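Question (not urgent): is this output format expected?
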Amino acid sequence: MAAAGIPDRAAGVQLHVTSLPGGRLGEPARDFVRWLAAAGQTVWQVLPVAVPDAHGSPYASPSAFAAWPGLLEDPGAPVGDDEVAAFAERHAYWAGSWADHGGDLADQVRFEREWADLRAFAADHGVQVLGDIPIYVAAGSADEATWPALFRTDAVAGVPPDAFTETGQLWGNPLYDWDAMAADGYRWWVERLRRSVGLYDLVRIDHFRAFAAFWAVPAGDATAEHGRWEPGPGRAVFDAATAELGALPVLAEDLGVIDAPVEDLRDVLGFPGMAVLQFAFDPDGEDRRHEPENLRRDQVVYTGTHDNDTVVGWWDTLPERRRREVRRACRAAGTSDTDSDPAWALIGLAHATPCRLAVVQAQDVLSLGSEARMNTPGTAATWSWRLEAGMLTDDLAARLRDVTAEHGRLA
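Got this back:
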């Protein structure tokens, strides 16, 4: 099995739709596609387009399937009853669950129109959209209400203590009952993947490691410290989906506590993994997977993800012993001066790696500090950072295109 559609020797930018000027689809989204094309970028990575929670997080949505009407350029566009009926028929597995949960299928029709138009516009400009599947659903979601037998009540989701938090992260999402899902042929996951490959050209699966083993925290615990690892379903979910959908254009988010079974599962499925440069350059660290000299072709490399600080914010708090390692790696790659321009030094370094795709945060293209950070894991982040019109200039596009061309990543 191999991932389909993941580009080779390419470059892209991560920017969620809510971070566009105005925070919606429409002309700002098309302007960003035009800017990406001018900058020689062939991938636009977005966060989930799902309905967000009260804090603005799209990773705790009331539906694993429904799109957020808050992204619509024209939320009042007319929708006929026949269009709603046709949408409900096309999405028969989940449309009823969303309607029963109080969702408006007319809004889903509007989103389908606008999103399809944007996808076509991006394709015309040589840009693929890389989307994201959150691993879990929110407590009390339409999914949990409609398919309760597929979810557990004795434990909730989280991750053990890691580089972000000393007590782990208590996500609180309901865990899947994998035995019940197996008895159903993994239908819910097959349909979720069907929905995702319908929305995006490429798909990142958040917290991929949970398919090998996941951290189960006893229900009612105040932190994630006392959870335990339990076995996931392995490749069975993806075998079921591939049998119906064909090869999957999947990128595996393999960050965090990663062991051999996770790596073996990723590799047997043929999914590229991830590397994050902000996790590198630690001479005393045990995890060397993110060091530039250890990166591989079948990875997607990031300056930072939505869970990281911006490069400038990261650099400002970096100990001198790690700064020395960054300078060494950037000199070897021939990138910008780290002390005067850390964001563009890491952009150049990411592009210089052997990884098949290099993705940078828009905030790093703009050399912004911690005030532009999108999320801080383990906190009720606002997810509110937004571009102002005109921030991504023609000069920045030309600069990024030059770096992309220098390292052989132009289409």
